[in-house]
Amino acid sequence: DADVTQTPRNRITKTGKRIMLECSQTKGHDRMYWYRQDPGLGLRLIYYSFDVKDINKGEISDGYSVSRQAQAKFSLSLESAIPNQTALYFCATSGAAAGEKLFFGSGTQLSVL
Amino acid sequence: GQSLEQPSEVTAVEGAIVQINCTYQTSGFYGLSWYQQHDGGAPTFLSYNALDGLEETGRFSSFLSRSDSYGYLLLQELQMKDSASYFCAVTGGATNKLIFGTGTLLAVQP
After folding, report:
1. Which of the listed residues A58, A63, A86, A93 has the most CB atoms within 10 Å of its CB?
2. Residue of B nearest to A107 (CA)
3. Do B42 and A99 touch (CB under 8 A)?
4. Is residue B94's pLDDT more than 80?
């Protein structure tokens, strides 16, 4: 079984719809992250959480919200999806020390029509 | 804020050595990481440098110069399977989060 699991793997939706992307991990890490990847722009940080009671905005949080339901679960919501949110979304986890490597899920390809 | 610069594309031949450079700007620098991503896959960790100097892991090495805000990833004895995107990432700022560069697409040719 994968250590970091994202669901769904692919999603096509329409403008204005609410979408939730889910992430769960079995690594026992406190830190969880959501990144989006667009061609030529690399990985950009949307939100991150260093423990269950901690939520922080990243580089591009507008239009997104998150929920840390438990240590193992971190979900990303698009309240009203728009076409420029079409991207590949990755969830990741890490330990707490500086330089701890990130473990990524397999990604969710989201298309907003 | 934090920013990183790396070349967008590099091409090399099988068996050769290639160096991918990365320059960065950040406050509260902790270290520089490198990740590999094959097309359609998830990024995977390659290396982390917190101190100046060269770290070697098999065919891959990573270098850091904190005074120059510069690092590089060195890939030796290139293989076709090394064709991938390579991202440098800096750990820093007030909250010790990881920010990625835009990635370098490495194409290894026969």
Report:
1. A93
2. B42
3. no
4. no
Burial of A61 (0-12, 13-18, 19+ CB in 10 A): middle
pLDDT of residue B85: 97
* A102 in Cβ contact with A45 (< 8 Å): no
Please indicate if any CB of chain A lies within 8 Å of the CB of B105.
no
Question: Would the CB atoms of A58 and B97 count as touching at under 8 Å?
Answer: yes
Kindly provide the b/e burial profile for residues A79-106, where b requires at least 16 CB atoms within 10 angstroms of the residue's own CB: eebeeebbbbbbbbbbeeeebbbbbbbe
| Bond into B7 cis (ω within 30) | no
Stated length of chain B: 110
Label the pairing between strands A31-38 and A42-51.
antiparallel
Interchain contact B44–A (C-beta under 8 A): yes
Q: Tell me the CB-side half-sphere exposure of residue B29, using CA atoms within 13 A.
A: 25
